[in-house]
Every structure is written in structure tokens, then in C-alpha cells.
Amino acid sequence: MTRRRVAILISGRGSNMVSLIEAASRPDFPAEIALVLSNRPDAAGLEHARAAGIATLAIDHKAFPDRETFDRAMDAALKEHDIAFICLAGFMRVLTDGFVERWSGKMINIHPSLLPLYRGTRTHRRALDDGVLLHGCTVHFVVPELDAGPIIAQAAVPVVPGDTEESLAARVIVQERILYPQALRTICDGTARLDNGRVVFSRDWDANGTLHSPG
Ligand code: GAR
Question: For the site Raises pKa of active site His, which positions are given (predicted)?
């Protein structure tokens, strides 16, 4: 098995990053985490990655005059580390179309909503304001349009009376940490692949599983 060399891009605490590192530490996982890169030198996740023995790099976006030069610096660093695939994990910079196109089909993201609902920011607040009873998270390929790429995996959670943004975020992040390694595995082992802008799966499917909210 050739393990794909993956870079994780973060901006903050990196709890999804930790779950990807843990999953990839198993010998049968089809990817290795070869680099953790942050646009914020103070991102807490960098320390966790270092402690796990992963190569880390901080490229401070504030040191660059515009998005193009920042993205080119990231691109050069990714090539230097021989990276084949990118996982965005709480990476809070909008990427240029040029960068996204260079990594087309080789870059995925996790987003804290059931896309296509709630693209962008403040997803938990907006879900609460709308009164939806199911919310969740999505792993998708990255395309130039924000949070609009082909969907690889989703997990749903109930929204319960009395929920706050914090309680809902806490429920969703538990599922994010389970979903992201599963989604990365399916892409790297070929169980899920991009075909004409859609994700196609070669696996059995349980068509009877449902989630009711209220349950
Ligand atoms: C996660 O909830 C992730 O889905 C979200 O940021 C958080 C990062 O947490 N990403 C986005 O909102 C991207 N649009 P983490 O640093 O603990 O993984």
C-alpha cells in the first residue's frame, strides 16, 4: 500500500487535525500526515502536531502583500515537502482560485454544517435561528466557490431545546472528528472518487438508516 503524503492546513486549535493524525498513525491507514501548515504562527494545533512528531510550518499571511503571494508561498512549501493531498481543518483563509485549481481533486475541507445549508461562517448560530432540528458537518472537495464542492461524507446531529451555539458546536465537533478520518480514508483507498464533478462510491450502502429529531 502506498500511503498518500497529506498536509493538514490549520488556523487554530486543530482538534480535527489531531483526529487525522491519530487515524493516520495506524499502519493500515492509506495516508500519512507529512506536514501541518498554519497561516497563524500562534495556532495551538502546531504544538500538538510537533508533539506528535509531525513536521510543522507557519507561514504568516500577514507577512504577504496579497492572497496570491501568500498562496504561492504555501504552494512552494507543499511542493518542497512532496505533498500529494491537502486536508483543510479549520483553515480560516480564503484561498485564491489559482491555488484551488492547482490542487483540484486533491484538496478536501470539513465544514460545520450539512451543506449546501449554511455555507460560510456562523453556521451554528444560523441553524439555531432557523429552528432546524438536524444540523451537522460535511467533508467535501474544495472548489473555487466557497463551501460548494462535491460532497464526500456528512454526519447529522439533533438540535435540542435549550441548545446554544456552544452546545451545538460541541455536539458537531465530536462528529467532525469521526467523519474526517473516515472521509480521508475513502478518498485515499479509492472507495470514493471524483467523477465529472460528483463523488462516486464503490461500497455497500445502508438505505434504511434514519435519524429522527426529535428522536
Ligand atoms: C471546525 O468546526 C471546522 O469544521 C471549522 O472550524 C473548526 C475548526 O476546529 N471550519 C470551518 O468553519 C471552515 N469554514 P478545529 O481547529 O478544532 O479542528
Answer: 147
Give the pairing type, strands 192-195 and 85-88: unpaired
The CA R_g of the chain, rounded to the nearest whole Å, is 17
| Rounded Cα distance, 201 and 195, in Å | 10
CA of 40 to the centre of ligand 1 (A): 14
The C-alpha atoms of residue 79 and residue 199 are separated, in whole angstroms, by 26
Residues with Cβ within 8 Å of residue 206, at least 6 apart in sequence: none
Ligand 1 centroid to residue 17 C-alpha, Å: 10
Handedness of CA 8, 65, 95, 106 (dihedral sign): negative
pLDDT for res 203 = 87
CA atoms within a 13 Å half-sphere pointing along the CA-CB vector of 115: 23
Domains and CATH numbers, the chain: 4-118+138-155+176-198 (3.40.50.170)
Whole-number pLDDT of residue 88:
98
Global pTM value: 0.97
